[in-house]
């Protein structure tokens, strides 16, 4: 069992966080969840339900621990609290900028700051396009200090049939970066014949 922090900010793509949490719990890992107020609103809007009802599915699990974004006394704000990694899904440019600048004025930013200083895996699923020079410089800076920048770029070699297929595969890639293998992450073998007929492809 691994102990993973999942942060949710107000960028678009909150369904990715939902899938990450769902897969982590299904695999028996402990999830420490914290969201910004805007993150709650975006999730409710994009998933078309009340935030409490959406997250309510996970609240009954003893492996799911939810924190208040303003509680800087929370366990995950301390480097002495052992975790195996953190992901922010999705990660807004504002949150990324604060982390890059060492501003730890919220629990998400503080937990990310701690994750970096303790040399633990930090995955930022950044959601913005097009990217400005400021965004790119912050991404480069954080990469140099050990963070992994992972925009939710969908793969198509697994031939997704639905939006859920794309979401789950992207979430599984986040887990993979944290050292966790999920069945929804297809491993490429290099053998095209495994995919079946490739009619219509040009040489």
UniProtKB/TrEMBL annotation:
This is Flavin prenyltransferase UbiX. FMN binds at residues 10-12, 36, 92-95, 127. Belongs to the UbiX/PAD1 family. It comes from Fusibacter bizertensis. Keywords: Flavoprotein, FMN, Prenyltransferase, Transferase. Its EC number is 2.5.1.129. Dimethylallyl phosphate binds at residues 157, 173. The keyword Flavoprotein applies. The lineage of its organism: Bacteria, Bacillati, Bacillota, Clostridia, Eubacteriales. InterPro entries: Flavin_trans-like, Flavoprotein, UbiX-like.
């Amino acid at each position: 069992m691994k102990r993973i922090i999942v942060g949710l900010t107000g960028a678009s793509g909150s369904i990715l966080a939902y899938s990450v949490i769902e897969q982590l719990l299904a695999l028996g890992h402990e999830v420490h969840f914290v969201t910004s107020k805007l993150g709650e609103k975006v999730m409710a809007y994009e998933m078309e339900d009340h935030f409490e009802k959406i997250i309510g599915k996970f609240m009954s699990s003893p492996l799911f621990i939810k924190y208040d974004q303003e509680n800087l006394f929370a366990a995950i704000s301390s480097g002495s609290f052992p975790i195996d990694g953190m992901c922010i899904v999705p990660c807004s440019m504002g949150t990324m900028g604060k982390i890059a600048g060492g501003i730890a004025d919220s629990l998400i930013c503080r937990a990310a700051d701690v994750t970096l200083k303790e040399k633990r895996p930090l995955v930022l699923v950044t959601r913005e396009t097009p990217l400005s020079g400021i965004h790119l410089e912050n991404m480069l800076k954080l990469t140099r200090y050990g963070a992994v920048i992972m925009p939710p770029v969908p793969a198509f070699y697994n031939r997704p049939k639905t939006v859920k297929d794309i979401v789950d595969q992207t979430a599984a890639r986040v887990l993979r970066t944290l050292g966790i293998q999920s069945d929804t992450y297809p491993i490429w073998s290099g053998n095209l014949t495994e995919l079946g007929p490739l009619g219509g492809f040009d040489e």
